[in-house]
From TrEMBL:
Protein name, UniProt field: Trafficking protein particle complex subunit 12
Region of interest called Disordered, as start-end residue ranges on this chain: 1-47
Gene3D superfamilies the UniProt entry points to: Tetratricopeptide repeat domain (1.25.40.10)
Phylogenetic placement of the source organism: Eukaryota, Viridiplantae, Streptophyta, Embryophyta, Tracheophyta
SUPFAM superfamilies per UniProt: TPR-like
Biased composition (Polar residues): 23-43
Length: 420
């Protein structure tokens, strides 16, 4: 039945820190099912329906970005930190256990000779532990660092190693992980508090760089500010805290009025608290942007068209017009067969139409065709729920699926979602 981005030091910036990038193209609303019970989940970040986990996993997947490296000075990641290119490659494949082994080996052989290398490797270690759901160990590693802003983490404290360098060598990703890890341990409020502290920290850096007329640094820190705000937005939306969510969205839209993903997210939130006509108006605004060729450039043409298509489908879903919703999702899949949000939601609409057989075929086909994109815990949960509804021997079918997942999934995939 089934077949088969890196923390990097930017040496040109006074504060050489890592930049996790928010990927807005994955933001959308989705429908999820749990053991046959279907509900709409206006998730702010991905197909998944878990607010804390969703925001964490999305950002975690982007933390390996190596943007902002000065190409004129460095030919490879390894020139920045020992064997950094290998760590980055492993992270893109989801080989988190191999990353932990490589880090352990590097430390045992004393291959890390500079302070910033230890911090870069620690960032990968904490990320890998979190991805492997060993968050208590990740928290222990973070707590061993003490004060991030201490002099022992500043370049000027090591003039013999970093001549003419000033600022913090703590990767930004490490600060972000410090804020997010408590949410993985069930302490949401502490995580939120730390995220707001991180937001204040970022804004202080923006003001500092602006006062020094460092335009490149200002742009970098503003991207980090947007990233943290999107993380906060995901948490608040996941807990239906619409007031603060709307405030954050309005601030973000004021900064970038041509962000179709964020505007679509606003429409989804309007739907959640019953403002259907307002949501339609918001979605119409996004479609008008597409027709007029107005965008911030983060989406290509197909992604933009599919965003508009999924917005239309969502309106049909809320109106319980599942036939029309399926029609819109079909158009999205025809344009991009790796649009897993459209695949997931089409299958669930078919289930609403009591066509379980076709719903199952849609999901199984996606897993066979684009396993890298389709292998998502929420999609697998939905598929297993359909198996339970459709088959008497669903345990055997789910076990077959579970065995296939064990062969092809990355290390951080939570196979318990098959409920075998």
């Amino acid at each position: 039945m089934f077949t088969e981005s890196s923390p990097a030091m930017d040496p040109d910036l006074p504060e050489s820190e890592t930049r996790p990038e928010f990927n807005p193209s994955s933001t959308d609303s989705t429908v999820t099912t749990n053991s046959g019970t279907v509900q709409t989940a206006m998730d702010s970040d991905s197909v998944e329906a878990r607010p804390e986990a969703t925001t964490f996993e999305l950002a975690a997947s982007q933390v390996t970005s190596v943007a902002d490296l000065p190409p004129e000075r460095f030919n490879s990641l390894d020139e920045l930190t020992h064997d950094l290119g290998s760590l980055h490659e492993l992270s893109t494949r989801g080989s988190w256990q191999a990353i932990l082994e490589k880090i352990s080996q590097a430390r045992a052989l004393f291959l890390l000779t500079k302070p910033h290398e230890h911090l870069t490797y620690l960032t990968y270690q904490v990320m890998a532990l979190a991805k492997l759901r060993r968050s208590d160990e990740a928290a222990h590693e973070l707590n061993s660092l003490h004060d991030f802003d201490g002099t022992h983490y500043r370049y000027e404290s090591f003039p013999e190693i970093y001549p003419n360098r000033r600022g913090s060598m703590v990767p930004f990703s490490l600060r972000w992980l410090y804020a997010l890890i408590p949410t993985k341990l069930g302490n949401r409020q502490e995580g939120l508090d730390r995220l707001y502290v991180l937001l204040d920290f970022v804004r202080d850096r923006i003001r500092e760089k602006e006062s020094q007329n460092l335009d490149d640094s200002v742009e970098l820190w503003k991207k980090r500010e947007t990233f943290v705000m999107n993380c906060l937005l995901g948490f608040h939306l996941g807990h239906k805290e619409f007031g603060v969510s709307l405030d954050l969205m309005k601030e973000l839209i004021n900064r970038d009025p041509l962000d179709p993903v964020l505007i679509s997210k606003l429409g989804s939130v309007q739907m959640q608290f019953g403002d259907i006509e307002g949501a339609k108006t918001t979605f119409d605004r996004v479609e008008k942007m597409l027709n007029e060729g107005k965008s911030n450039g983060l989406l290509n043409e197909i992604q933009f068209k599919n965003l508009v298509g999924r917005n239309k489908a969502l309106v049909h879903v809320v109106a319980k017009d599942y036939v029309s919703a399926v029609r819109e999702y079909d158009k999205c899949i025809e344009r991009d067969n790796s649009d897993i949000i459209a695949v997931n939601n089409k299958a669930l609409c078919l289930m609403y139409l009591r066509d379980l057989s076709d719903a199952i075929k849609v999901m199984e086909s996606a897993l066979e065709r684009v396993p890298t994109a389709a292998l998502n815990e929420s999609l697998v949960v939905n598929l297993c729920s359909m198996y339970e509804l459709a088959y008497v021997n669903h345990t055997d079918v789910k076990r077959t699926l579970n065995n296939w997942i064990a062969r092809v999934a990355p290390d951080d995939f939570d196979s318990s979602c098959t409920r075998v």
